Amino acid sequence: YTLVFGGFLLLAGRAADRLGRRRLFIAGIALFTGASLICGLSQSAGMLLVARAAQGLGGAMVSPAALSIILATFAEGTKRNRALAIWGAIASAGGAVGLLLGGAIIQAISWRWVFFINVPIGAAVLALTPRIVPESRSEAVAKTGYDAEGAISITLGTVGLVFTLINANSWGWGSGKTIAGFSVSAVLIAAFVIIEQRHKEPLVPLRIFSDRSLAASDATFLFVAAGLFGMFFFCTLYLQQVLGYTALKTGVAYLPLSLTIIGASALASRLVDRFTPKPVLITGLAIGTGGFIFLTQLSGHNDYLNHVLPAMVILGLGFGMSFVPATIAATSGVAPEDSGLASGLLNATQEIGGSLGLAILSTVATTRITNTLHGGAALPVALTHGFTGAFTVSGLLCAASAVLALVLLPRRKRAVKNEQVETIASSFARCPGAPYAGHLARLVALTRRRGKPTANKDVGPSS
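The structure corresponding to this sequence follows.
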């Protein structure tokens, strides 16, 4: 899923601008829903892997257009702002909520129902979307030609990079496979840059990187994702393998993180309106670093209340205050016709950063666990030692992201005219596991829909 989702983000983001966001949204939901059904019915590992890859492609198609649906549903003003706040809070906490629901479903029914549950929700979205959601696309981008060479090179390059990062720890960082994987990815990405420089109508106009706010935000988010993905992974392992939690109990243990993210996201939105994204982002990252410090103090002996719970509350506050300003800063200077592209860049950065961080943290944890076991320590002690090492590196990555934001990010006020771009791009700054939670919230909100959407320059009726 991660491999295909990350590899097709840029292409899907530009396709949303060109083909229409509703059209791509419907196609992505249909693919994701069908693939979910196949996942649940899978009779072999190979069948499950193929279906998961199809899910990843569907998710990459859905993301660029997801939040633009809310823009088209709610009239500008209080109702739209409320809807966006609900979406942002649910999406930010979706990964943690998914742990709770997934644990309950697996324990009460079967792992297959983790996939089956997507089918009725997807069917409802497919039935309602054509009746409710207006089409929107960038007419300027739609009139341009196709950059097939750029699309192929960046998709293959990104897929290769993510695949190598996922397997680097098991292959060995100095192995021939790892070196070859990174080399091939680097050649493909370099070829993509050359193609974009020479192409008259490039898939990714390189001028977009001249926006200092976008470039700095994407760089910052690379480090944030590297630390955050590792936190979820190793904290879950600690709760289950060291403290002996069941899948359901682990999900319940993450509830404080979910609730804190929801509250912090709403707070961050207000703070950004009052100040600028930069100080809010730096403050959130500094708070998040403090949360990782708590996790480095794990003892392995019933310390959920003493260390894990405080860490989750602090991390929820920190990352909840980071997602909103990071997204706004990454999109505040982007032209409306490039909204899908900016979205793809932001989420591609997240996926690559998460894969890179998890690969590095896995190497650190595995090395420390192995050395501790060789020293004669019991398995729970060795696991705790390895996991705290990973949390230490996560804290350093979070602190590095705060420094990057402090040094590189310009301080400027949020522009109202960029609201649509920010909102569409926000769909990428969230956990990939949360889309259906957001769709469900949107369907509930539709019953209270009022007014017509205001017109935007890049929004036009589909032919």
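Residues 414-463 have pLDDT under 50 and may be disordered.
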